[in-house]
């Protein structure tokens, strides 16, 4: 299987610890990816969090729910994981979370492999998810900072 790697960088107006805690909580992942519609069976350990995630793919009136097991490995300023999805798609991903002047920089990195014929579709979906995640994180942390009216 062929592998492809890609990254995005997002800068947030929040403390690195706050961003880390947000990304380490599976409940916060719902809506962070437009495909992720549910998390359940959360199991927390000292250096990792395991959970079941439901990804929803739609094409017109057709809908397919893909149930995957996810492990978040929590490191010093990093969160990494691997997902084995249907169709032979494998994703190794990671967040590098660093303090920068005025906030936090998050580098969102993917290494994705898939069988021939599925790779282009899987990479396209993953890049859309990654871009949406950066926009949603930015929105979430702007909302937290906005004064209530």
From TrEMBL:
Pfam families on file: Polyketide_cyc2
SUPFAM superfamilies named among the record's database cross-references: Bet v1-like
Protein name per Swiss-Prot or TrEMBL: Polyketide cyclase / dehydrase and lipid transport
Organism: Streptosporangium lutulentum
